Amino acid sequence: MTALIVCHFVLAGCARPLVRLLGRRTFVVLAAAPAAATVWAATRWNATASGDVLTWTWSWMPAYGVGADLRLDALAELMVLLAAGIGTLVLLYCASYFTDSTPGLAGFAGNLLAFAGAMLGLVLADDLMTLYVFWELTTVFSYLLIGYDSERKHSRRSALQALVVTTLGGLAMFVGFLILGQVTGTYRISAILADPPPADAAVSTAVVLILCGALSKSAIWPFSLWLPNAMAAPTPVSAYLHAAAMVKAGVYLIARLAPAFADVPVWRPVVLVLGSVTMLLGGWRALRLNDLKLVLAYGTVGQLGFLTVLAGFGSRDTALAAAVMILAHALFKAPLFLVTGIVDHAAGTRDLRALSGVGRALPQVCAVAVAAAASMAALPPLLGFAAKEAAFDALPHGDTGERWVLAALVVGSALTVAYTLRFVWGAFARKPGVEDTPVHRVGPAFLAAPAFLAVCGLLLGPGVGWADRLLGAYADAFPAPARPYHLALWHGMGTAVLLSTLAAAGGVLLFAGRATVTRLSRRIAWPTADSVFGHLLLGLERLSLQLTGFVQRGSLSVYLATTLLVMLAGQLTVLVFDQPWRGATAPRLWDAPLQGAVAVLTCAAALLCLTVRRRMKAVVLAGLTGYGAALLFVVEGGPDLALTQFCVETVAMIVFVLVLRRMPVRFQESASSRRRAVRIPVALAAAATLSVVVWVAAAARSAAPAGAAMVEETAHHGLKDVVATILVDLRAWDTMGESAVLAAAAIGVTSLIYLHRRTEEPWLREEVRGRTAWSLSAPPMTGLPRGDEGAPERGWLAAGSTLAPEHRSIVFEVVTRLLFHPVLVLSVYLLFCAENMPGGGFVAGLVAGLALITRYLAGGRFELAEAAPLQPGLFTGLGLFVSTGVALLGLIGGTVLHSWSHHGRLPLFGEYHLATPVLFDFGVYLLVLGVVLDIVRALGAKIDRQIERAAAVEAGTGGPEHGPERGPEQGSGAGPGPGGGREPGTGGAPA
How many angstroms separate the CA atoms of 420 and 87, rounded? Predict the structure, then answer.
């Protein structure tokens, strides 16, 4: 089972290269994955129909009961056959529907196959959390498929609407899953169904929340607005997602949980009332629409209401009727959508008012559509008739309320017959006063998929008894009545036949009076749910803008004060009422006098920040507080923490300095004495409160500290550095999460600066010949020698020719050149010595980043480009890839991040051992290096270009001046030379 699911996603990932190679024929290759799932499910038919169950379990974190469970039973077998079988046919249909030149074909193909894999995982899931993961995957992929034509506003809006509605329902369902799992003590679906909890308030709440998710997924009123708009997607998407797959997910969940929760008091009123209303509203709306896809879309809404009533009714016979109706609906609605795509393809329109005589021009297409439509209208001897008979036979045995439901379903069935006739007439009939629509020929491959499905519906009508064993195996989960119903095409004359005849006659009458019905429908039409959704969305947007304008004042001090005041209110309330300091150990001022001295100096630097007016002074003082914290780590004996703190503070100060180049020297915000009288107490109160909270939290420890156990565990593996072992082994999950957050934050910050593109190469060779930020910031100077006399005899930097001679520091260049490679070697040493010495991937990456920063400070952005020619994103992505790969490699040992080690011996080096935590740390090293490099390029090189543009505008040149023809790529280490020096007075390095 897992191999089949994974195969879908792997092939989906290969869609792009396959499309480049094969074009639209790629769909035939991609169809292999769902075809394999179909064949596998078919081989399990007899075993599953006999009651056998196939399970698969993967225990991810046994201590927490977290794992993934899959289960194939009768209901799952039915859904797998539909999702995989129809998915195969739709993919084959796409090979004829699209052309090789269709834009975005690779993305569409990959998303469609990935959706099929997610649907397969959803119906096989036997765990609530696993089901939720696949549930949301179907939401995401459906969003991408509906919004396939992203250049059209309607497609984007429809995709967003489907995403919002189904995601909100999914979140409610997730909360219901959590409640249900806590009440029952398990998230295993089969275990919950075997021993359902009593119907108390918690279970009732969980049921309502779960139904919200199921009803929103299956477009049940009031969530039905998204499905008709989803017809903006290509026809294959409509045929698959909205006839056989996605919209069936909600019905499937109701059918799955009904054996355990149908007797919960809130279940039947919600399911029966909303299902009946949906069937009536969907069918009535379909009678006045002119787009063939919209007629089928609203018809689908009505049919989903019918399925919801049957699946949620809670009896053995209605469950059997629901199962066969799920099968029948897929076999007639999918071919009708596919035929609509063929008509649109051949005639160029789906408007039934413009179509005329298509049936005579395309008789094979018309025959397929009539066969599928006859099943939808429940005409014998097709499968739809047998399914409708099963439903009408199961429902009349209830109380008064349930008889009202039966009446609604009969009226809904009459509406179904009416819009079915309207569809066939509109698509294929010759209409008076309308010229025959010109169409082009349809190939047999194009028609094969809908024809196959229509024939299946025709054959399974008389042969419906063949499916009775499988579908009955699911229905037997409910209490058996005295005379259980069995599937057959004909059960003799009875109530069910009379109701079917009444529904058919009513539908014919509605179609005969279609003009009057259409006028009446439009006259009494309520505002559409789509317009209501639009107004709600607009109102929400306006409210958010007003709130944003009220709260976001543009003052960082106001934001910080608000945050601190909220924190103070919450913490002080807890401290006052709970008084957690009672019985707590009194805090010590220091362990050694040196700690007190460092702390006093650190606090003094922090307080001095309140008095300065210059931004640079504030940055230096803030940096001193960080260095003070690092000194405290040194005094306490934490060299790893101290080294990391020193590196972080150094990088942070350099980044601040880079940013300050584009900011005023002094703080511009004028703070009156009244504001200072408020700000200073707030800041001091927040600091004091946090200190008390930290003390109380530390003093409240009741369990033994974990430090001794971690030291013992580290020593057990022959290691000495406990901190590094914690980061890359014992708590590697935390490190992975922090690494991902760090990468996301860096990408977000730099993306705000790089609004267009993030690469250096396209303009490097031209800009290096002009004036750079490192030769523009000073006013013209006189009295300096010209040519080689004003430049060093030797160029110590690769980009030395871009620097103004009067502002080059030969000492700094020499030191940079001499120390760059040793610092890089030091970073590698810190990476690999972390098992037994202070170091690690994080601090090693910072050290390597500092080496590159030094090159930038010495020679500018061109020097940085020469020192690190690769893009920062490569390092960041490769780091995440390595860390994630090492984590997944642990699955070989049974769990994610399971560590492996290898011991060996090398000539000259002697004994060595290689462990996966070192490889994991190497990924962290690359990621941190990429983040530092990305920030320096964004806040350094990008700001350099802004300075250059501003100088060019002020000079009136409109662009960089033409200067020396040689760039750093023309020779590293050579002096500027006769043509490489600047004329005196061209500027200098920035201050």
Answer: 24
Q: Among the residues of 242-266, which ranges form H helices?
A: 246-261
| Nearest to 854, CA basis, from 840, 864, 841 | 864
Task: Determine contact, residues 388/382, Cβ cutoff 8 Å.
Answer: no
Residue 686 has pLDDT above 60, yes or no: yes
Averaged pLDDT for residues 917-927:
87
What is the C-alpha R_g of the chain?
A: 36
Residue with tokens 């909360």: 175
Please give the sequence-ordered ranges of beta strands (E in DSSP) within 98-206, or none if there are none: none
Give the number of other Cβ atoms within 10 Å of residue 377's Cβ.
26
For 151-202, write each residue's pLDDT tens digit. Answer: 888 888 888 888 889 999 999 999 999 999 889 888 889 889 988 888 888 9
CA distance 73 to 45: 10
Furthest C-alpha separation in the chain: 115
Nearest to 640 by CA among 835, 495, 506, 406: 835
For 127-162, letters b (16+ CB in 10 Å) and e give bbbbbbebbbbbbbbbbbbbbbbeeeeebebbbbbb
Over range 271-289, report the average pLDDT: 89
Q: Which residues contact 245 (CB under 8 A, 6 or more apart)?
A: 82, 83, 86, 87, 115, 116, 119, 138
Tokens of 315: 């009896």
Among 819, 827, 802, residue whose Cα is nearest residue 966: 802
> Taking a C-beta distance cutoff of 8 angstroms, is the pair 949, 759 a contact?
no
Residue 444 tokens read as 């047999």
Question: How far is 478 from 482, CA to CA, in rounded Å?
Answer: 13
**How many CB atoms lie under 10 A from the CB of residue 392?**
24
Tens digit of each residue's pLDDT (9 = 90 or more) over 188-238: 898 899 888 888 889 999 999 999 999 998 888 888 888 888 888 888 988
Residue 93 CB: number of other CB atoms within 10 A? 29
Range with lowest mean pLDDT among 197-206, 265-274, 435-444, 775-784: 775-784
Q: How buried is residue 870: exposed, middle or buried, by Cβ count under 10 Å (0-12/13-18/19+)?
A: exposed
* H or E, element range at 72: strand 66-72
| Cα–Cα distance, 991 to 980 (Å, whole number) | 23
Residue 322's closest CA among 312, 314, 331, 311? 311
C-alpha to C-alpha distance for 918 and 841, rounded to whole angstroms: 8
Burial 518-539 (b: 16+ CB within 10 A, else e): eeebeeeeeeebeeebeeeeee
Say if CB 912 and CB 835 are below 8 A apart: no
Q: Identify the DSSP state of 398.
A: S
Cβ atoms of 232 and 149 within 8 Å: the answer is yes
Which residue did the predictor score with more confidence, 981 or 693? 693
Residue (of 888, 925, 918) closest to 729 by Cα position: 918
Distance CA(220)–CA(251), nearest Å, equals 10
Stated pTM of the model:
0.71
DSSP class per residue in 702-719: -SPPSHHHHHHHHHHTT-
Please give the Cα distance from 283 to 303 (Å, whole number).
8
Report residue 370 as tokens: 């009539």
CA distance 927 to 849: 11
Cβ(157)–Cβ(223) below 8 Å:
no
**CB hemisphere CA count around 93 (13 angstroms):** 30
Tokens read off for 27? 């769909």
Supply the pLDDT for residue 86.
92
- The whole-number pLDDT of residue 968 equals 36
Question: How far is Cα 951 from Cα 960, in angstroms, rounded to an integer?
Answer: 9
